Amino acid sequence: MSKEIEKEKGLAGLSSGEAAERLKKFGENVAVKKKRIRPILAFLRKLNSPLLLILIAASLISFLVGERINAAILFLMICTSAILEFVNSYKSEKAVQKLVSRVVTTATVFRDGRKREIALKEIVPGDLIFLSAGDVVPADCRVEESDDFFVNQSALTGEAFPVEKVAKSDEVEAEDFSLQNRNLVFTGTSVVTGFATVLSLKTGASTEFGKIAGDLVRAEPETDFEKNIKKFSFFIMRVNIFLVGFVFLINAMLGRGWLTSFIFAIAIAIGLTPELLPVIISVSLSRGSVRMAKKGVIVKNLSSIQNFGSMNVLCTDKTGTLTQNKIILVKYMDGLGNVSEDVLLYAYLNSFFHTGVQNPLDSAVLEYKKLHIARYKKIDEIPFDFERKRQSMVVEDEGKRFLITKGAPEEVFKICGHYQKEGKNYILDAESKKEINEQFKKLSQDGFRVLAMARKEIKSTAKVYERREEKEMIFLGFVAFLDPPKDTVTETIRELFDLGIEVKILTGDNELLTEKICREIKLKTKGTITGIEIEKMSDHELQKAVLGTTIFARITPEQKERIIINLKKAGKVVGYLGDGINDAPALKAGDIGISVNNAVDVAKETADLILLRKSLRVLKDGIIEGRKTFHNTMKYIMMGLSSNFGNMFSMMGASAILPFLPMLPTQVLLNNFLYDISQLSLTTDAVDDDAIKKPTAWSLPFIRKYMLTFGLISSIFDFLTFGALFFVFRLSESQFQTGWFIESIATQVFVIYVIRTKKIPFIQSSPSRMLFWNTFLLVAFAWAIPFLSIGIFFHFAPLPLMVLGVIFGLVVIYLILVEIAKRIFYKKYGYNL
Fold this sequence. Notes:
The protein is an alpha/beta fold.
């Protein structure tokens, strides 16, 4: 370790100036820096699509063989498409970065002789950092001072159990910089219990985590939606391979030229492929995240929005979610229900000397009444942990030392051999235990949150005391708190139920109190299971039990994780809402991890979504936005497949029958390009209330049926158009291609009005203004192209008014038929999206 770091041992820490110099020298404390791609490189990457590369090659070949106008048109359209995707993707990324920056994880450091909160990226080697339960370790550090300091190193070692870290007097040598060293803590690990002052040794990429991450950056696991998109892409690829091969061979055999046939076949493949799907998804997700931010939900992981919309089970604690989180102390009594000033005094001492994570129960004790405790001196603290469910203080009063314990009644009972009544001590026998337990049950049934108090005198004069001292204590009594339900929670619970979401309560509190709260908020409960019962269950038994249970009480963090994993195995899409240290495993296990902005660091780091305030109402609004995002994305897929497949199938058939190409490659690409522009506004579209009343679900078989049904209808009208243009009006080649172009673009674009809703278009459900005007003006422009000078570049020819009238009539009849078919289709197959 360098001398400049070694000298920072005093609690003064670094000066602001020294910290600034070291930040310049060592860089920001970021383990893996995402390489920022220059805009020009980012744009070029948009061209790195197999189909686009083939088109680029085709345009170059066209240019070399003399088809320079076609080559120019092809190249212009390719660049325009890439620019369109780049601009939207870039804007989406910037919007998301701005939102995520609102959730900042900080660390407590000693700067200029006092404690300060700074962003993790500002930590430098030599910083003195104060860590307590719930904090994420921000750098590789040496422990200088510690008290019952346990760290979870599973992120680096895979160990499930926390490891105790202690201060040592000897310096850490370079060769001893190992995970097993008990006086070192490492970036990415988290504090489970206790607290410590640590000295930062390594930051950023030089940390152990940074070295690992530099070699292998772990990608986020694929969401269910992403997996289905991949399956969908392979499905499209198989269809494309068949179409391209068939169209290419037919046209080449008919003597239309190998190059022309090749470009035409590729154009058909482009027409069938929803190539703007990545843009639609990214724009939908980013706009969805912006809308969700307005509702108080910050999206850290964009792809989780799709899972958010699919969520059908929400697991949550009750404190602050169902209740107001305005905890007040109401009663202090001995074990038999008599008011006891001793209980209040010892509760006050325990809370006053408590350090570490801020606890609302401790705050409630201190705010109830100010007691004069100047004569008491804190000697040591045994911090709270989720195994013992209690915290203890060693306090000295006039030369005598006392161990004062506060915690969950059932855990405090275990360490007591006596109880206090009217200032005298009695043996805690079976009869007195039963009587005290009855008092505890009564308080819980009345809706109070209860903690038990115990104490004992300690004869030893050690500097440090450990949890093994918690035995043979005297039970003092109870402190009872009230945390009333939120006024709006009953209505919100009903609204969540109406949205197809089942709420399950996972809490460390006892079942009687939890059941009382659930009755008050009118949450229908199917059953209650305690942690003791879960401990005895196999995973198979628990998988059955979780479906029929609403309340899981007195459970550990590991049991929360087991419950969520088994809910997922049972086929549920599970969201978990938590903000404490004990919630981290469950947040990671859920399909959607949800935390709040004032949560402990490890909870915020693990979560996919951050609520700006802990409220089910905020969560409900976010779920609705998630479902809207999903449905607007699916509209593009459903419409693109139905109309595109029909048009491309028709083109494949027509190219085998007609004496010329039904549309030139550049006309096909123009059609597809204009169609895609019209669909970008889909991300702004309104979504019917009926569509968001149940969790979203992806179904590839349903999509296939949809594609074949509506693609067939589209093809029928295409062939009717062919017949009218070729056999009735006997149009020339360029006029025929022009006629089919304007019919194709109109049916492709206007069918969105029908497909976007299960209801009657415009009468029962209207599109957004942007979608309407974007589609209407684009089709008007497409119909005008043959009559403009630009039309000659695409080999279009003006059409007689009568022909335009017939095409207009066919478009109207097509839309009416699709509306009828839609109603029959949904009646037969249901609404599976």
